[in-house]
């Protein structure tokens, strides 16, 4: 993969979005995510000070908040707009891309992407990178104390995972179905219903334990419907919500990650037992 060429092309895509509001180049989301993964691996092994000393912008930070060129444009624009960055948008784009492009060209890196077989609970699903990025973005929202986004993203991660599992098994569903209905269908295909557990004391305890996922899914759905950034609540209710201690929102994040890992592990088990 010609990384420097692809980064140059992505830079031009971002600048084209700024000029016209859209881009005409055939730049896929898969290529975008592949560049991100390669840069992450590469930057672990090179000098951290490759960026201009005047710039505090790190390209990986921007990639980690984006899943496609349009989202990257929004992140860079937000840096200029929100934080009053003392450069124009175009200057900021050049500061993000040019140092790493020059470094790669100067050192003549030869980079290839190889598919290897590893144990990965996500392996039976197609878009593995997207799930990892969504979890990273969820944790970023928690770190930045953007609690409305925590609620929205927790819901979105679970909803997309439920649908992906049902798609894998070619199960039809109403795209507007609520989270609990989707989860009910997921339980069926993953053989997590009561009749799938043997009638003994050990399995009964496991059933009670896994049954709590129902309650967690329901509460994440309810919290999202009331407090998420997508619903824009204001006033006293929002103030009370934002003033809850930080660890409450960490519990939402950790619960989402636990449910995700458990269901992916269950899917992997069902497909490989």
Q: What brief labels describe this structure?
A:
single chain, 273 residues, Four Helix Bundle (Hemerythrin (Met), subunit A), 2 domains, 67% helix
Task: Summarize the topology.
Layout: H1 3-20, H2 29-43, H3 59-64, H4 69-82, H5 89-107, H6 128-143, H7 147-168, H8 179-189, H9 201-227, H10 236-242, H11 246-272
Helix pairs in contact: 1-2, 1-4, 1-5, 6-7, 6-11, 7-8, 7-9, 7-11
Task: Report the end-to-end length measured between terminal Cα atoms.
Answer: 37 Å
Please bin the fraction of helical residues.
55-70%
The arrangement of helices and strands along the chain is: HHHHHHHHHHH
Global morphology: globular
**How much strand?**
under 5%
What is the highest CATH level, the class of the largest domain? Mainly Alpha
Number of helices: 11
Second CATH tier, the architecture of the largest domain: Up-down Bundle
């Amino acid at each position: 993969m010609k990384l420097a060429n692809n980064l140059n092309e992505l830079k031009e895509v971002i600048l084209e979005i700024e000029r016209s509001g859209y881009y005409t180049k055939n730049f896929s989301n898969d290529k975008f995510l592949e560049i991100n993964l390669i840069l992450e691996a590469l930057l672990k092994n090179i000098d951290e000070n490759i960026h201009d000393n005047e710039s505090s912008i790190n390209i990986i930070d921007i990639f980690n908040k984006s899943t496609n060129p349009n989202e990257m444009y929004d992140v860079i624009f937000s840096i200029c707009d929100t934080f009053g960055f003392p450069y124009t948008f175009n200057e900021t784009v050049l500061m993000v891309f040019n140092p790493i492009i020059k470094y790669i060209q100067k050192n003549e890196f030869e980079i290839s992407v190889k598919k290897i077989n590893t144990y990965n609970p996500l392996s039976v699903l197609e878009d593995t990178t997207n799930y990892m990025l969504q979890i990273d973005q969820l944790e970023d929202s928690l770190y930045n104390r953007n609690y409305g986004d925590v609620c929205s993203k927790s819901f979105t991660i679970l909803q997309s995972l439920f649908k992906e599992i049902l798609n894998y098994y070619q199960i039809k569903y109403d795209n507007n179905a609520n989270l609990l209905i989707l989860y009910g269908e997921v339980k069926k295909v993953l053989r997590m219903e009561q009749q799938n557990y043997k009638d003994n004391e050990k399995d009964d305890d496991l059933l009670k334990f896994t049954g709590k996922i129902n309650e967690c899914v329901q509460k994440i759905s309810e919290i999202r419907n009331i407090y998420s950034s997508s619903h824009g609540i204001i006033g006293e209710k929002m103030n009370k919500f934002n003033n809850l201690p930080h660890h409450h929102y960490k519990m939402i994040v950790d619960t989402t990650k636990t449910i995700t890992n458990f269901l992916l592990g269950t899917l992997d088990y069902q497909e490989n037992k």
